[in-house]
Amino acid sequence: MFIADYESKNVYDEMFSKEGNARQSYHFLKSKMESLGGLELVKRSSSAEKALMSLGITFTLYGEGEQQERIMPFDVIPRIVPSEEWVRMESGLKQRIQALNLFLKDLYGEGKILKDKVIPRDIVESSAGYLKQCIGLKPPKDIWIHITGTDLVRDGEGTFHVLEDNLRCPSGVSYVLENREVMKRTFPELFDKLNIRQVYDYPYHLRSMLENLADVEDPVIAVWTPGVFNSAYYEHSFLAQKMGVFLVEGSDLVVEKDHVFMKTTKGLRKIDVIYRRIDDTFMDPNSFRPDSLLGVKGIFEAYKKGNIALANAPGTGVADDKVIYSFVPKIIKYYLGEEAIIPNVPTYLCSQEDDFKYVIENIHNLVVKAANGAGGYGMIIGPKSTKQEQEDFKKLIIGDPRNYIAQPVLNLSTVPTLIADKIEARHVDLRPFILYGKEIYVMPGGLTRVALRKGSLVVNSSQGGGSKDTWVLG
After folding, report:
1. Across the strands, what pairs with 309?
2. Cis peptide leading into 365, omega within 30 of 0?
3. Residue 283 and residue 226: Cα distance in Å, rounded?
4. CA angle in degrees (0–180, nearest 5) for 315-320-321
5. What pLDDT shows up at residue 179?
6. Which H, E and C letters describe 262-285, residue by residue?
7. DSSP 17
8. Could you name the domain of life of the organism this protein comes from (predicted)?
9. Residue 408 near residue 368 (C-beta atoms within 8 A)
10. What's the rounded Cα separation, in Å, for the pair 107 and 114?
């Protein structure tokens, strides 16, 4: 069968060892793929794609002055994570979120970590995500980070590293849930044979976490979306429907006497908890950006007075900053007294003199990113860039060194991927989703993003990437 010709050179492959043998966790999948044959696999892939299209699972791509709504590309060959590997990853993710939550509590409170000079004060206070308006805030239950999507990658030896933290409005969980449902229909026999941990109960865990933030029984909950033109609107409506809660825009909300109400055909209805999918500074024109047309006047004041719970808390963006990311191992050590279970990718800070010099001289060998860039934008992959692109990016770094970091080019692990009628190696990352409520819940699996372009290391959907189902074995 065509899988016999599969090659993955000089990288860690999730399915095959360097000797070309299938890893134990993939034995049954490999056997099944060989028994199906190429034509049947292509047929099932086509059926899965049609199922996803009928569900309307889309994202919006922005560029060239226009926007396009697209179906998220999907590959039917799953990514498998053995149970013993997952146990370590789960522990590491819980550790990281605990430490970052304590960091935010301290940062906007006593500021001990700054006084102890674990992180330079100017690094924190110059972050675009640091909001002085949040100093002194006390979020419900002392939880700042309620929903997180942490991006993980493997190095050439197969060791997982944290590539970045997404603590503001992480997206992609709807694709995880829908991909799983389609895979169950596409390969029911695999689900019968393999002990694959479930992900369908994520909306239940999400709702339970949101309910935990309220001080009333049976709280009224809403998902706050920027609107139908937002790239992740499908996910906003999907999660609201799955949780059985309201989906609202800023124009649906009003603040009266420091309480938040939703406009309905029967009058105003008080809201207790909001899962916001809108950036901090667009949330309230009275407190942040006065030009925001998406926000609700007075909602931040209502939050400060404890009359509305917001997830995630305002101000979490500072811990999302890629410069702050480089200090997370120190943050874990400072607050928990532990070494980081999942290491960071080695990172150079362009704001530091020695690092700056190294990055400028070696930009052709590095990945350089803007501190608050996202979606694969605001970055350069040195070995795949032109001399002119390198020179242009050097000017950006020189003009604002605080805003840039650099990392070595990681040869991301690969997973067999169906490309037309052939199976080829494609690079992947992994975004598990973590909920912080009464306890910390880590979805077993997460979103495996795959770079569908041959040789590409950029997995973002906006840059030609797709997704795979992620199977954590029980």
Report:
1. 273
2. no
3. 10
4. 105
5. 93
6. EEECCEEEECCEEEECCCHHHCCC
7. -
8. Bacteria
9. no
10. 8
Cα–Cα distance measured from residue 288 to residue 90, given in angstroms and rounded to the nearest whole number: 36
Q: Looking only at Cα atoms, what is the longest distance across the chain? A: 69
Q: Which of 324, 402, 408, 410 is nearest to 356 (CA)?
A: 402
The pTM assigned to this predicted structure is: 0.93
pLDDT score at 94: 98
pLDDT above 90 (res 347): yes
The H or E element spanning position 164 is: strand 160-166
d(CA 65, CA 247): 28
CA dihedral 51, 53, 58, 62 (to 10 degrees): 150
Q: Report pLDDT digits (tens) over 233-286.
A: 999 999 999 999 999 999 999 999 999 999 999 999 999 999 999 999 999 999
The four Cα atoms 311, 314, 317, 319 give a dihedral, to 10 degrees, of -80
Lowest mean pLDDT among 22-26, 45-49, 216-220, 358-362: 45-49
Domains of the chain, first to last: 220-271+273-307 (3.40.50.11290), 348-407 (3.30.1490.270)
217 burial class (0-12, 13-18, 19+ CB within 10 angstroms)?
Answer: exposed
Reading the block at residue 464, the tokens are: 């030609």
Residue 386 per-residue DSSP state: -
Query: What is the Cβ-side half-sphere exposure of residue 429, based on CA atoms within 13 angstroms?
Result: 23
Rounded to the nearest 10 degrees, how much is the dihedral formed by the CA atoms of 376, 74, 76, 419?
-70
Q: CB atoms < 10 A from the CB of 114, how many?
A: 17
How many whole angstroms separate alpha carbon 99 and alpha carbon 334?
8
- Which amino acid type is present at position 172? G
Tally of helices (H runs) and strands (E runs) in the chain: 14, 22
C-beta atoms surrounding 87 within 10 Å:
11
377 vs 434 pLDDT, higher one: 434
Span 435-451, pLDDT tens digits: 999 999 999 999 999 99
At 326, the amino acid letter reads: S
Find the helix or strand (DSSP H, E) in which 241 lies.
helix 233-243
Residue 134 and residue 280 in contact, taking contact as beta carbons nearer than 8 Å: no
